[in-house]
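Hey, I'm writing a tutorial for new members on how sequence and structure tokens pair up, and I'd like a real worked example in the thread rather than a made-up one. If someone can provide the structure for the chain below, I'll link this post from the tutorial.
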Amino acid sequence: MGAWLVLAVGDDRSHGGNDGYDDEPSQHYSWDSTVPNHANMQVGDVIALWDKKALLGVSVIEEIAREQAEKDVYTCPHCGKASFKPRKTLTPEYLCFDCKAEFDTPVTRRRPVTTYRSRHDAAWTDMAGLLPGSVLRSLCDKPKSQNSLRPLQWDRLREAIEATGESTVRIVAAAHKV
């Protein structure tokens, strides 16, 4: 059984290279083939969702739907990289971190992708705020990774959850059923 720490930020996104995903943390998580580790999550794996700040909840992947689609990706009009973020108060709206260009309109390209959507609602255990981001990152195989999908050490996560007084019985039972 694998375990994953996955980032679900909703509208609090800072990356400018795509439109984000339609995650509903207690029910499903979405990603595509442009995301590192995209094909590694499997049915039966533990999935811990967080929002950059803290744990949202934990469950077990019951199903992963795969489809083919086209996705808009955005790049800097000066250097062609997707290393930019929208600014909150300054104009132009975007600043590229690679070439330092400022611009209001990124270049839009359509590209084919495989989309993935986990279903994990049956064993969902809400743990909003239970563990901070610093602890969650330390439980990953590569604590300094910045990927949205990060391999996680399930035994250590379970110990950290149980140390707070919360139970992981429901999650463990669901993992053995899948």
